[in-house]
Amino acid sequence: xxxxxxxxxxxxxxxxxxSKRPCTPAQKVSRIITREVYMKQVACFALIVFLLAVSVPGxxxxxxxPRRYGRDRGEPGTPGSEKGPGEFTFVRTIYGSAFEGxxxxxxxxxYPDADYHFIIGVRDWSGTNLNISDEPEQIEILDDRLFxxxxxxxxxxxxxxxxxxEAEALREYVMRGGFLFLDDFWGQYxxxxxxxxxxxxxxxxxxxxxxxDHTIFHCYFDIEEIVQVPGIGSWFRRGVTHEKGGxxxxxxxxxxxxxxxxxFIARNCDLGDAWEWIDDPRYPLKYGLxxxxxxxxxxxxAMTH
Length: 305
What we know:
The protein is of the alpha/beta class. 34% of the residues lie in helices and 12% in strands. It contains 7 helices and 9 strands, in the order αβββαββαβαβαββαα. The strands form 3 sheets. The protein has a 5-stranded mixed beta sheet with strand order 5-6-9-8-7, with helices on one face. Strand 8 (250-255) and strand 9 (261-267) form a beta hairpin. Helix 1 crosses helix 7 (285-304) and helix 3 crosses helix 4.
């Protein structure tokens, strides 16, 4: 180029690079949706990889379960890092029941392995960035600490027996923003008891099946089918996913007058057993995957609604 000559400008250089062009509102929405889909795919892939890793034959026990709680199913895990409470703590509800199972009262079924394993899953591979406490809690319904936590978990509510005072406490807990998560009950008798106990808490509301296009099934993972997650006994002893006549699985809920789900109910399913036995290669991966995805979605929904 001659000295003093004006530099030539190619017409194409006047066109902004695609990455620098201003986005229309529709393009912005499209990019946001694309990022969300990508992140869901990444989280789902990480979940599958994690479950495959802990399910292979010869795999050691999943870490995070203190030795004192083990049931000698191989080498015990190691305690969590005990870094203190996070923004979410997994809370198992202590409730009264006449039922005495093999491992104690019905509220303690699957404890503590299910609780620790679920915490590890949410913390280490779900990709939620949720600051979850390393240690789970077990709290009685009439304990004032209940109001410190956004979600409480009930296992085997088919044997739940609420006093009038407990029913009032649960109602107040939910009316102040709390969320109930019921899991692991089977057959007609237990179903009728769950309905009776929930009527004591919410006489104006009914339990109903949730459609798969509901927000709770798409707030993090996209859940497209209702999977009957089996209890360990039914699967190991009989190779079936059902028990006590509970053939058809249901993902159910109770909605308040504003449409917010205030209780999620896994009927004829045992999510807790899948959390507990996720590191046993005899337990099918597809059931573990389904149980973790449902559990994580319920937490995300409860924390954001």
